[in-house]
Backbone:
C-alpha cells in the first residue's frame, strides 16, 4: 500500500481527466465528494475526480470545503479574467514529489543540456529532425516562417482575412474577431497545459525557449500544439460567424482537445522534450506523508530530524 500511495502522488493520471471547466458569476459549494455550481438558474453538480482544471472567472465565489474537495481530487484551480483570457493565479497541483522539478531545473541551468531541450522542442513542433549545422538563431527563423505560413494557410482555408497578430491588453474589444479568437484559444490552451505541468510536478516558470515569466515553461509546451489546435479552431469560429467569439472558442476547444487526445500527449511530450538525460541518483521519491529531505554536500539527509547534536561538529 505505501508504494501505491507514492505512485498516486508522483504520477497523477492527467490523461484520464476532462480537460477544463470555465465558470463565472456563480457560487461554488461542496456537495458530498463533488462540487455544485449555483446561480439563478439552479444547481449543477460537477464531479471533482474527473476534472483536471477549474477556471474561475469574474463573479465567482467558492467555499473552503469546495477548494478542499478539488485539492483532494488533484484538480487544479485557476483564477482568470473574463472569458478566461487572463490567468491570475493557480492552486497546488496533484503531485507532492519534487523529482520532475529538480530534473527540469538542472537541465535549464546547464547550457549544453538546455540547448538540447530547445532543439528537441523545435523538432517536436516541426515533426522533423533539424540539421546539426543550424544555429539556434536559424532554428528560430525557421520556426517563425512555419508559424507565419500557418496563419496564411488557415486564412486561405477559411476565407478569413488575416492582417497579422495584433491585440491590446488594455482594450480587449478593439481587436478584430480573429485576433480575439486566437487570444481566447491560446488562453484556454495555456490553462490546460499549466494544469498538466503543475500536476506533473514541473515548474511553470522554468522555461527553456521562453524566459522571464512565471508561465515560461507553459508557453514552451503550449507552442507545440498551437498550429495544430488553437490556430485552426480560432479561424473556424470566425469563419462561422459566431456572435460570442470567446465562448464559441472555449466550446470547440473542449471538443478538439478530446479529438486529438491532448491530455494523453502533454506529459509524454514534456518527457520527450526534456529527453533521456539521466536523473541524478540523489533525486529520490519521498513518501507523500513524510517530511522532505535536507540537502548536504555529502549526500541527502532525512528531514523531520533535530540536528542539534551536530552544532559543534567541525
Residues:
Amino acid at each position: 500500500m505505501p508504494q501505491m500511495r507514492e505512485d498516486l502522488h508522483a504520477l497523477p493520471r492527467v490523461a484520464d481527466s476532462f480537460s477544463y471547466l470555465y465558470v463565472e458569476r456563480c457560487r461554488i459549494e461542496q456537495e458530498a465528494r463533488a462540487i455544485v455550481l449555483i446561480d439563478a438558474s439552479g444547481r449543477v453538480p460537477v464531479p471533482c475526480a474527473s476534472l483536471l482544471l477549474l477556471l474561475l472567472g469574474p463573479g465567482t465565489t467558492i467555499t473552503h470545503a469546495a477548494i478542499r474537495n478539488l485539492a483532494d481530487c488533484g484538480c487544479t484551480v485557476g483564477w482568470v479574467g473574463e472569458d478566461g483570457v487572463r490567468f491570475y493565479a493557480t492552486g497546488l497541483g496533484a503531485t507532492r514529489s519534487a523529482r520532475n522539478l529538480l530534473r527540469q531545473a538542472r537541465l535549464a541551468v546547464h547550457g549544453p543540456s538546455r540547448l538540447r531541450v530547445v532543439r528537441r522542442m523545435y523538432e517536436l513542433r516541426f515533426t522533423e529532425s533539424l540539421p546539426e549545422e543550424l544555429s539556434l538563431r536559424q532554428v528560430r527563423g525557421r520556426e517563425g516562417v512555419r508559424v507565419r505560413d500557418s496563419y496564411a494557410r488557415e486564412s486561405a482555408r477559411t476565407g478569413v482575412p488575416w492582417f497579422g497578430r495584433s491585440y491590446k491588453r488594455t482594450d480587449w474589444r478593439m481587436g478584430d474577431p480573429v485576433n480575439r479568437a486566437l487570444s481566447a484559444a491560446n488562453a484556454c490552451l495555456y490553462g490546460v497545459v499549466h494544469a498538466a505541468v503543475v500536476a506533473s510536478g514541473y515548474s511553470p516558470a522554468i522555461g527553456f525557449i521562453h524566459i522571464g515569466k512565471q508561465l515560461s515553461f507553459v508557453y514552451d509546451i503550449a507552442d507545440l500544439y498551437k498550429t495544430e489546435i488553437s490556430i485552426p479552431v480560432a479561424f473556424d469560429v470566425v469563419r462561422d460567424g459566431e456572435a460570442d467569439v470567446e465562448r464559441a472558442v472555449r466550446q470547440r476547444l473542449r471538443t478538439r482537445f478530446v479529438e486529438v487526445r491532448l491530455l494523453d500527449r502533454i506529459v509524454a511530450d514534456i518527457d520527450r522534450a526534456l529527453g533521456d538525460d539521466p536523473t541524478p541518483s540523489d533525486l529520490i521519491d519521498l513518501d507523500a506523508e513524510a517530511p522532505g529531505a535536507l540537502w548536504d554536500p555529502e549526500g541527502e539527509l532525512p528531514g523531520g530530524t533535530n540536528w542539534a547534536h551536530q552544532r559543534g561538529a567541525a
